[in-house]
Amino acid sequence: MPELPEVETIARGLDKRVTGAVIESVWLGSKPEPLKSSAAEIAAALQSRTIAGVRRVGKHIVFDLQSSKNGTVAHSESQWIVHLGMTGSLRIFSADEDIEKHTHAVLRLNSGRELRFVDPRRFGRLSVIERFEAPGAEPLQVKFDDFVALFRRRKTPIKSALLNQKLLSGVGNIYADEALFRAGIRPRRRAASLTRDELHKLHSALKKVLKEAIRLGGSSISDYVDADGGEGFFQLKHRVYGREAKACLVCKAPIKRIVIAGRSSHYCPHCQK
Question: Catalytic pick from 17, 59, 108, 116?
Fold first, then answer.
């Protein structure tokens, strides 16, 4: 599933390419799974609207829309929200390019290009909402004291707490593993057991990992591509994720893989305590 850096990369790419464009027409596929709002609601919210901007909120892509009334541009009451799910992509195509199988939405823009949502496994979701807000704190902006408060008295493993979108919106499996490694903390440690110093290291490591991953365009380890169909490069910087049994890049001990709450977790038994 695309995580914060991948979604941020896509949102930034789309913002540069479609902001100011007018949505001339909307086509939605017949599969019901991707539509969290009805097809009629989505089409009505998007048709003839101007895309005022594209941004990331948690793991969601938010399209801010504008409408024109009597020649005056005003904000629409709705936002278009896209969650990419496991295999979703949101890309710009020329209108004459063949429509791929598993395409569930096509927005024709006044530039002649098309914005298409493709999702083979149909775990992605499309919806319109008046104002979207993430349930948890923004990992790139959360202040240290607020970060500490998120984990106070929580008996769950710190890895599970990092993945809890009601606490931090956007962190996923890859970047939780990578941040815990850089902070020297084992994923099974109870969140409440971490000292203030350990939480300071984790707070810093998480932000650094996310920022570096955004700079490198995210991690392309499965289906992820950016708005132009290009791959990211942060997978080349992974220190533990996906490196089970390989030598730790710091101490040479073999990387271990365990399962916590149904999710794979990778760590170094020597570097992480």
Answer: 59
